[in-house]
Fold this protein.
Amino acid sequence: MPDWLARRSIWIVGAVVVLVILVMAGLPLIASTQIVRDRIAFQMSAWSGYRVKLNNPPEIHVWPTFRAVLSDVTLLDWNEAEPKTVLAAERVEMDLSALAALRGDVVFTRMRLVRPVLRLTERNEKLRLPAPQDWGRLNRSVETARDAVSKAPTDPDTSGLPGDTFGTIEFEQGRVIADDGNQQTNIVTSLSGSLEWPALNRQVALLASGIWHGESVSLTASSTQPLILLGGGRAPLTFSLQAAPANVSFTGSASLAGDNFIDGQLKIAAPSLAGLIDWTHALSLPTNSVGPVELSARIVGDVRRLKFEDTALNIAGSSGNGLIDVSFSAGDPLVAGTLAFDTLNLPALIQAFSPISTGPTNAEGLSQSIGGGDFDFDLRFSAANATFGNATLTNVAAAAKVNDELATFDISDATAFGGTIQFGVRADRTEGRETVELRMVGERIDLSRLAAALGRERLVPQAPCTFSLALKGPGADLQSVLRSGSGTVSASLGPGTISGLNLDAFFEHSAAGEFFPLSAIEEGSLPIDGAEFKASITKGVAGLETAVARSGAYTISLDGLVPLAGRALALYGRISESAEDEASEEAPLSFFVGGSWSAPFIAPLTNYR
């Protein structure tokens, strides 16, 4: 290389280095004079449409990036009389364009908010962000998109959308609160993440984590046409939410303006349905033992109505398919639909929708089991097979209806226990008092199989039976209804046996003339040719009208009172030879049955032999 060319190159490189040094040295001075507090506030206001208040002058840093650091930053609405805070941050860090700064402009490339607090107004149980001014750059961009959507709703022209550079907004340890004018309530806490939006006409991506309703939540969302999405048009949208109570994902299209239309594939997985409902505060169930749930469906609709098409539902091990429709009309939202199951876990279904609890009474009574004041239900279920403990039911048809004043759960038809069975429970509070009706009808039922499914096998006849039960009374759980209800119960049994009753042993102990426990004669069984039973129930006590069993040459009858929910027994019985045995001269044996259901005793009143 010639010497003169080398010297020129050195001078050029030296000049560039000197220029860079001068710019680096002079940039703080230029920034301190041209990028002043008002200019930064103006640009933030121009973007957001809110009034921006900087309580302290910005700190300018040149290395390693050119940035401004502001403390105590507040965005307010434009109410002159009483401005309200929309967003407040303890600290805001902004990466700025150095070249724009030399021109006297402010161009943000990245903004980091430290401990920001976003305040939403709450009116009529709805949360809203105070409206910004129309001249805000974001608001004007959304209006441009709205105009494009209005001209061509299904295929808007995106070529005219603004392409202003936006950049990245990061936030750390933030909060979202609701302000109803009287008090402020935390909605989300420990909120951290970022919003990446390179330009207004390009894809936006949100990544956030925080605490909602006491659980850590991670959220990701993105859209390739964010302005169209905000402007009321349909645009692609994906989001994923992960938390301990549930994982939720959606892929499809949506509109975040107007009626908030949505159309796409939704998936939900939760380890506990009751836990998910309790976490979201969506509604109340009468039990907290409903197991894991998975749902996959195409969701289509808007704020007035949502349809879950091609629904695949797995709840507590039961898999079903069908259609669910959620309508948001006047009053509580209504969840309606039809689901068909191959195999249905019947106890889980009863726990979820029965209007009374089979466990202890909760503090809030029946109100926890009738809709919870949040959702109404009108659901139909069918199952080729259903399980109830160790028992199997087939061809099951069930329905559940729930609203604020009335709740019903019905198994209108099922083949089970060798026959057919129907079951229904209705809880009504239309008259200001919680009243429950229970009914159960069975035809040609094998009582031993039914008793085994219910875990009540002792002293239950092993015989075909047709029975009916109707009971009505106040109460919030089964025990309360049994203690207070009134109604009727009847049964007709065919030939069979009663385990735990030995008639010969009964005679032997009776001959001694002293009372004895029923357990003393439980070895063996009592064969019966048939039996009839009928009782009237008044305030939880069954008064026997007919209770007769025929066993060979003997007829066994009972009379007295049986409390349904209590443990005491007070029955009188007699054993006599059948009228057909004309040669018999024996007097009937009379006896008293006392004690409790779990440990009854027999007291002979007359000697039989």
User: Anything to note?
Assistant: Residues 13-23, 29-34, 360-373 have pLDDT under 50 and may be disordered. The first helix runs from residue 3 to 34.
